[in-house]
Write a structure and sequence with these properties.
about 375 residues; alpha/beta; seven-stranded mixed beta sheet; binds pyridoxal-5'-phosphate
């Protein structure tokens, strides 16, 4: 028997995460010039990062022979001021994925279950299954969370409910009041993980402050990331906010130096540059309108999005994706999200969006 044969069944049952294709890989495969390739596949920030975050990252490089501050003192201070929470209510992660993994390690395990929606972020089933727990996937409503069905799906062995708002890859959004009613209705022993990776992109009339709910709901954990609107995806920094008891549990399973010194320094500076975040949201709103109006004018079915990407239906998505790749445009097939006829495109700069719409028109003609 091989090592693989002897591995636990719940590990062998996992289908690995499929990331967006890197620019360098497509350039190699197609013999294209890297600079001619447009990557709109991983919901990255087309404006890059705040100049002050870049300067802070570069300055931090001088000290990389030292271990990072394992408690992330400076970043916790900054996050504490930003959200008006105590530093004991913050856990830092190597990306917010790391926070989701900590939740699974701390609360899930064999004989336990987690609830999430169909078409929800792939890391929820991954983290759940890796912990040896079972995943309860609840059918979606209009591609978004069906909160009533998710409430009904909670069993005695359920310990976690994962909700991304807005959700990736569908871009769907649950209104704040419905969400709060749901949280209030979840049993006290079940942690609701509210994954707000895209909340900076919400239009003002949809924006809500879930951090204010933490005082009322001890079983709520809010997760945020520096990967999207803050433009630090490659540095891997995210955080979770909760009541101190929950944060204490997560810290028990956290790797001691899980966030790099460069990431910590950049994140402090990035958080201080809210003008950059506002510019990012404005660029995204314009780009989303640009792409949406193209899809509408071509009669291509799409899911109204509240984030920095949009999913659209093309029938044979694998073939369309191939034709886009041949033209140097990388988007994301989402067959792994039970949406084999759909593609997801991240919103880029105006010229990148135009490259995408031109390429899609050709791909479909
Ligand atoms: C991108 C994304 C994240 C963030 O992942 P990081 O690990 O912080 O880079 C979290 N949740 C969802 C739903 C996402 O789409």
């Amino acid at each position: 028997m091989s090592v693989f044969d002897c591995a636990a069944a719940h590990i062998k049952s996992i289908s690995p995460y499929q990331p967006g294709k890197p620019i360098s890989e497509l350039a190699r495969e197609m013999g294209l010039d890297e600079s001619s390739i447009v990557k709109l596949a991983s919901n990255e920030n087309p404006l890059g990062m705040s100049p002050s975050a870049r300067a802070a990252a570069e300055a931090a490089l001088a000290d990389v022979a030292r271990y990072p501050d394992g408690n992330g003192f400076d970043l916790k201070q900054a996050v504490s001021r930003h959200h008006d929470v105590a530093t004991g209510q913050i856990v830092l992660g190597n990306g917010s994925n790391d926070v989701l993994e900590m939740v699974a390690r701390a609360l899930l395990g064999p004989g336990r279950s987690a609830v999430y929606s169909r078409h929800a972020f792939a890391v929820y089933p991954l983290a759940t299954l890796a912990a040896g727990a079972s995943g309860i996937e609840v059918p979606a409503r209009d591609f978004g969370c069906d909160l009533a069905a998710m409430r009904d799906a909670i069993r005695d062995d359920t310990r976690v409910v994962f909700i991304a708002n807005p959700n990736n890859p569908t871009g769907t959004f649950v209104e704040a009041d419905a969400l709060e009613r749901f949280i209030a209705d979840v049993p006290a022993g079940v942690l609701v993980v509210l994954d707000e990776a895209y909340s900076e992109y919400l239009p003002p009339e949809r924006a809500y402050d879930s951090v204010r709910w933490l005082a009322k709901y001890p079983n709520l954990l809010v997760s945020r990331t520096f990967s999207k609107a803050y433009g630090l995806a490659g540095l891997r920094v995210g955080y979770g906010l909760g009541q101190t008891e929950v944060i204490d549990l997560l810290n028990r399973v956290r790797q001691p130096f899980n966030v790099t010194s460069v990431g910590l320094a950049a994140a402090v500076a990035a958080l201080a540059d809210q003008d950059f975040v506002r510019a990012t949201a404005a660029t995204n709103a314009d780009g989303l309108r640009q792409v949406r109006s193209f899809l509408d004018s071509e009669g291509i079915d799409c899911i109204p999005s509240f984030a920095n990407f949009i999913a659209f239906q093309v029938g044979d998505a694998a073939a369309t994706n191939r034709r886009l790749l041949e033209q140097g445009v990388i988007v994301r097939p989402i067959a792994g999200y039970a949406m084999p006829q759909w593609l997801r495109v991240s919103i880029g700069l105006e010229a990148e969006n135009a490259r995408f719409t031109d390429a899609l028109r050709k791909a479909l003609s």
